[in-house]
Amino acid sequence: MLADAWLLVLACAALIATALIVMRAACRRRSCAADWTPIEVRGDFLAYAERNFRSGTGDNPIAARVDRGYRRHDGTITLVELKTRDTDRIYPSDLIELSAQRVALECATGEQVHSFGIVVVQVGSRNRAHRVRLMSRRAILGLAMRRARLLDGEALPRPAASRRLCAACVYRSRCHPKE
Amino acid sequence: MGRRRKAKAVASASALSQMGVCERLVVFEHLDGKHPTSAQQDALQRGLRAHRRFAAGSALSAGRSEPHVLRRFKDLPRRPTGPGQRLSLMYYRLPHFLSLCMRRSTTLHAAMVAALLVTLCLVVARLGTWSGVLAR
Q1: End-to-end alpha carbon distance in chain A
Q2: A166: number of Cβ within 10 Å
Q3: Measured at the alpha carbon of residue B120, what is the angle toward residues B116 and B125, in degrees to the nearest 5?
Q4: Strand partners, A127
Q5: pLDDT tens across B73-131, in order?
């Protein structure tokens, strides 16, 4: 009888914990504060806002404008990027942009930037924060090198991964002349 | 030609992000310049306005030192000695640190809530036993 009661208590605790996890996930997705600060960086110090950085003078230097950079208690910087969209979703281009910002900021200041960043998507009047894992420095430098090769005409450019992107493109007739 | 050389010299983060959209578009825009549609221009203006508000929000609220100065001023007469002030500082910092940890880890959050609930149940059960003993 007592064991059954304890099982019931544990089951209730597990149920409440699951409900809290779901509520927490919904809360994390839901919003930022009135000052657009995502939950993940609330309480951290705002170190950079709308600042330009440039990664040295190597073969492929990268310049970036950081929307916001928050310094955590351990000294690492968390990058926050704002996007205004019609739908609440993030794209690979957001990942690349934040990762490029990380490379530029790390090279320019020598500070360590956190391996995840936050994309705040503004849909109408609502702001939702998405936590994303950033690409490696090597991947970004490789991308910059490929871009340079493309602009030099040394490599063939690939088409868009999704044909839906082509619908609104002004170069569609040149890119797909048979259509 | 000048534009081409400049674009090659420094790659901006937004230019690199275009590589994740379409490489052909990157090349076309490099050769012919940008020709945004009216919808894209509207979106650009909307984005600029949002960024201005974003920047204004950061300037007005986050990272300000006034709350900390006020807190120190408020606690000065209460805790005039060094250990007292350290205790006061710990009182403010510890819950802040714990709440940050719990915010960042959903598992930790859920585990702490579950542990608290189980502890509460244990306490209630123990009190029930004692009340039975006392009644006898």
Answers
A1: 75
A2: 17
A3: 150
A4: A122
A5: 666 666 566 777 777 777 777 777 777 777 677 777 788 788 888 888 888 887 777 66
Pair of tokens at residue B19:
């590589």
Q: How many C-beta atoms surround the C-beta of residue A105 within 10 A? A: 25
Q: Provide the chain A residues 80-139 that lie in CB contact (below 8 A) with chain B.
A: 82-84, 91-98, 100-101, 104, 122
Instruction: Give A-chain residues touching B120 at CB under 8 angstroms.
Output: none
Q: Do residues B22 and A169 touch, judged by C-beta distance below 8 A?
A: yes
pLDDT digits (tens, 9 = 90+) for A85-109: 888 888 999 999 999 999 999 999 9
Q: Is A53 helix (H, G, I), strand (E, B) or coil?
A: strand
- Across the interface, of A64, A68, A148, the residue whose CB is closest to B58 is A68
This model of the complex carries an ipTM of: 0.76
If one counts every other C-beta atom within 10 angstroms of the C-beta of residue A117, the result is 25
Check: CB of residue A108 under 8 Å from CB of residue A77: no
**B105-121 burial string, b = 16+ CB within 10 Å, else e?**
eeeebbebbbeebeeeb
Antiparallel, parallel or unpaired: β A62-71 and B11-12? parallel
The whole model's pTM is what?
0.64
Amino acid type, A64: A
What tokens appear for A27 in the block? Answer: 């809360």
Residues belonging to chain A:
179
The two tokens of residue A120 are: 């705040």
Residue A70 φ/ψ, nearest 5 degrees: -105, 130
Contact B16 A46 (CB under 8 A): no
Cα separations (Å) of B122 from A17, B99, B117? 17, 25, 9
A23/A5 Cα distance (integer angstroms):
27
Q: Do B26 and A16 touch (CB under 8 A)?
A: no
Minimal Cβ distance to A84: which of B15, B47, B106: B47
